[in-house]
Amino acid sequence: METIIKKADGNNIDPEVLMQAGDIIKKGGLVAFPTETVYGLGADALNPLASSKIYAAKGRPSDNPLIVHIYRTEDLYKIAENISEDALKLAEEFWPGPLTMIFHKKAIVPYETTGGLDTVAVRMPSDKIAMEFIKAAGGFIAAPSANLSGRPSPTSAAHVIEDMNGRIDMIIDGGIPVIGLESTIVDMTERVPMILRPGYVNGEMIKEVLGRVSYDPAVFCENEVVGKAGLKPKAPGMRYRHYAPKGELVIVRGDRETVTAYIKKGIKNALKEGSRVGVITAEENSKVYSDATVLLDIGSRNREDVIARRLYSVLRECDEKCIDYIYSEDFDTPRMGQAIMNRLIKAAGHNIIEV
Ligand code: AMP
Ligand code: MG
Question: Ligand 1 atom 9: the closest Cα is on which residue?
């Protein structure tokens, strides 16, 4: 299939592009589109055949549900049941924005969209192109991230093209998403709203609005005991190895000097073996690792927004540059640290060395 690629400017969106994208969705096709988190791969959420195509294009396991994207809060009532006061408060505070909420689904939402579950995940993105696209496409867009299953989520149109060219009908190129990490997922069917996936909207922010919040214990699991301890993450997508580069990625944690010394020694050994070695490092420390085959500067420790935005690009760069061993510092920054480290730890397959 030939994939149509069209640029769009959020401040002046070409109506022709929106119409074309909307038509493709209404006919059951697939369109990748920008959001403020990462690029999404959209289909008509209420059309089971269209939703099924998403799984095929991504190579995604069929039990991993999609998020339904809407452009106005009133549409939530058409697809979800038992919408609580808490949910309305969170919608009021964080929609449109990077927050996904889980509700009991209405019959109109096909099981192809929810991966067989009786619940549905719903989000209203704030990106202008995303909003207008959802509207033009009929109001209900099922979309996971627009990457091949297992690869890092796409944070540029180039990433989407890399993974999806020839597999989907259209890609809307809207530049670089401002956040760069997937939305926070909160399960509103739990007695106390439960965070299943950390994101830009953190637990503190939710607690400030509701006075309470809980966490899926699997969110904090840093070792590969998730399965062994019977801690099955409630968000099916969190069970899969994800975001992973092809080379072996190790996170090194400890006090700054010991970490640096450990990584420098690792670089030396890897080079001796004839391997290509990369280091994911904060800007402040990048000069220290000048021996590495590839330096992956993720930005200043004082700019966690930049670290979040660059993370997936850096992980993709590991593959582009055919790196065999990748060392990473940890980036436990104040506000988004939990979300950043959650993704990085999964990318490393829980491979963490404490020094
Ligand atoms: P992606 O946007 O690619 O990150 O995929 C959507 C994420 O939402 C995956 O991690 C899913 O497992 C999660 N998700 C979607 N619907 C539900 C649901 N009904 N219950 C729990 N998690 C969900
Ligand atoms: Mg994804």
Answer: 237
| Cβ 144 under 6 angstroms from ligand 1 | yes
Rounded CA-CA distance 237/233 in Å is: 8
pLDDT at position 242, please? Answer: 74
- 147-182 confidence digits (pLDDT tens): 999 899 999 999 999 999 999 999 999 999 999 999
Per this entry, what is the length of the chain?
355
Indicate the pLDDT class of residue 219, thresholds 50, 70 and 90: confident
Whether 329 contacts 280, CB under 8 Å: yes
The arrangement of secondary structure in 248-354, i.e. its CATH architecture, is 3-Layer(aba) Sandwich (3.40)
pLDDT digits (tens, 9 = 90+) for 289-309: 999 999 999 999 999 999 999
Strand partners, 33: 40
Tell me which architecture the domain covering 4-237 has in CATH. Answer: Alpha-Beta Complex (3.90)
Percent with pLDDT over 70 in the chain: 97
**pTM, to two decimals:** 0.95
CA of 66 to the centre of ligand 2 (A): 9
When pLDDT is cut at 50, 70 and 90, the band that residue 224 belongs to is low
Q: Which atom of ligand 1 is nearest to the CA of 182?
A: 4
Query: Ligand 1 centre and the CA of 279: distance in Å?
Result: 31
Ligand 2 centroid – CA 145 distance (Å) = 4
Atom of ligand 1 nearest to the CA of 238: 10
Of all protein residues, the one whose alpha carbon is nearest to atom 1 of ligand 1 is: 144
Using an 8 Å Cβ cutoff, are 199 and 185 in contact?
A: yes
Q: Report which secondary-structure segment, H or E, holds 168.
A: none
| Residue 67 Cα to ligand 1 middle (Å) | 6
Q: Tell me the C-alpha distance between 264 and 313, whole Å.
A: 23
The domain segmentation of the chain, as residue ranges, is 4-237, 248-354
